[in-house]
Amino acid sequence: MARVDLTIEVCGMAGDGTIAAGGLLNEAMSAGGFSVLGFDSYPAEIRGFGRCVTRSRIGTERIFALEDKTNVLISLDDVQSRSRVPYLARDAAVFFDSNPPVYVEEEMSLAARVEPETTLFGFPMADLAAAAAGTTRGRNLTALGGFAATFGVPRDLFVEVITKKFKAKGNKVLDANIKSFDAGYAYGLEHFRDRLRDTLKPLPGIKKGPEKVMLSGNLAIGRGAIDAGLKLYFGYPITPATPIMEYLAAKLPERGGRVVQMEDEISSIGAVLGGFYAGARSMTATSGPGFALMTELITHGVMAEIPAVILNAQRGGPSTGLPTKTEQSDLHAAVFGGPGDSPRIVIAPSDVEECYRYTVLSFQLAEKYQTPVIVLTDFYLDNRVENLPIPQATEREIADANEYPDESVQGAYKRYLMTDSGISPRSIPGMEGFTFSATGLEHVEKGTPNYTEENHMNMTEKRHRKIAGALEDLPAPVEYSRGGPLDVGVIGWGSTFGAILEAVNIANERGLNVGALKITSIFPFHGGVIRAFMNRCSEVLIPELNYEGQLANLIDHLHRKDVVRLSRATGSPIPPSLILKEIETLVPAGAS
């Protein structure tokens, strides 16, 4: 069958049901067997005014990133949707309300702003919803109905997901929403019959294979934490990490755990250290401003060798910055933030499934290496949704990773015993005969303070040796290439890597000799693997969502020449097309 790759936007004012419409669209397309990647953007203001946009990329092949051009725009508000016109593909389709609830001057309408090649589908969404259900509130469902009919999506797919979403609100609400959808669907079949297409009819064999669910990065993190045996979550609300706490507040008590909303981020990380110190797997999640407040106690965890799991959902900065925009600008803070030489483990998932996997992994790493582990995500990764098989952790992945002291040292226990690995046997308070002191002051093996030059040097080296040894348990970089020498090697991390991979794949399809390297272990990093990849590349390109090129700053010394930086701080994800353009400028003329 023909390859499908469509980017569909729903745009409206806050309160129009834009986000709900996008969610229903994603669920229906997933049920139809398509690969789905969706992302919502909305205003930062709590009062709820401003533009809301949902972007969904639907395809017959796996989707790795959002594209920068939109094939279908479903407008719930002409004024807000006009801002999306520059992003429309040349042959885009636009659905709009031909009789909107608020009058719009003709020259200010969406239809007056699009290019002549655009196919327009105007219909009275509000009027149809009111006639069908007695209220215009369902006009977002009416818009979906018109779109579904036009693009060949069976009615039953949408009715199934609408029922799933609204059945808990009672039959009256459910019936009103289905009637609103049906009104738009019937109108589309009747009035757009000369422009009907079967682009999005369900794929054959969609019932085969493992069950798929729509998961956001934040929900995947929450599920991963629960499956890893999380007992205590301490947090303070902050965008974009708050949905993790909301999910855990609903689900963790069912598994015998507790969620406590603290008075601030300082108390949150303090409580996490206390929970882990007592032997209970504990966690917090925050964003840049909250992470800044945590740094002193994170380094306390480094010095006292207390496990902790901290999720940093990056957003635009500095300071409170852009709360509902994405950025990758906390890498320096995660790796180096805080006083003194304070090494810790930093890992960064690149897609929703890795959000689950690396959250599970973080608890074992924290326990085994007795250190804070920071999981770096970003607004785009946290808030985007993907359809994927239900992730599950194995018993081995969630097993207790703590190294306990041998009974033979009972009564003579040294909590910070010097070992070749740097990992000292760790007792849990209450274990008879294994008492110890834990302090943020420099200390000797028994835990008592000691400020001598020799001791501080030895203990500092011990802490670094331990973290360096964690590489054996950290995911190695993954290469995507044909092997051998490469004209351009593209290195990336976090949510940007999907766009990198897509750009590299297109470049190779065009005959260019290009490869990609995904780095998920930010610190410590696999320097030997990264250097070997760089040495095979004539040019190395590192795209990042920050101005300074923070990953490039960390690893560029591994290359024999300066790396090329593609650094953007726009608040939006990097599109594959921009990376592809940069690749093409770096490939030598005539090379293939």
Please bin the fraction of helical residues. 25-40%
The main β sheet shows up as: 8 strands, mixed
CATH class of the largest domain: Alpha Beta
Radius of gyration, rounded?
26 Å
Percent of residues in β-strands: 15-25%
Poorly predicted parts: none
Strand order of the largest sheet: 6-5-4-1-3-2-14-7
| The CATH architecture of the largest domain | 3-Layer(aba) Sandwich
Number of discrete helical segments: 19
| Gap from first CA to last CA | 30 Å
Morphology call: globular
Kindly report the CATH topology of the largest domain.
Answer: Pyruvate-ferredoxin Oxidoreductase, domain 3
Question: How many β strands by DSSP?
Answer: 20
How many domains? The number is 4
Helix/strand structural class? alpha/beta
CATH homologous superfamily of the largest domain, by name? Pyruvate-ferredoxin oxidoreductase, PFOR, domain III
Mean pLDDT level: 95
Overview of the molecule:
- It is built from 19 helices and 20 strands.
- With 592 residues, it is of the alpha/beta class.
- The chain folds into four domains: 5-195, Pyruvate-ferredoxin Oxidoreductase, domain 3 (3-Layer(aba) Sandwich), CATH 3.40.920.10; 214-398, Thiamin diphosphate (ThDP)-binding fold, Pyr/PP domains (Rossmann fold), CATH 3.40.50.970; 403-474, no CATH class; 478-586, Rossmann fold, CATH 3.40.50.
- The strands form three sheets. An eight-stranded mixed β-sheet has the order 6-5-4-1-3-2-14-7.
- Helix 5 (155-166) packs antiparallel against helix 6 and helix 16 packs across helix 19.
- The longest helix has 21 residues, at 171-191.
- The protein is globular.
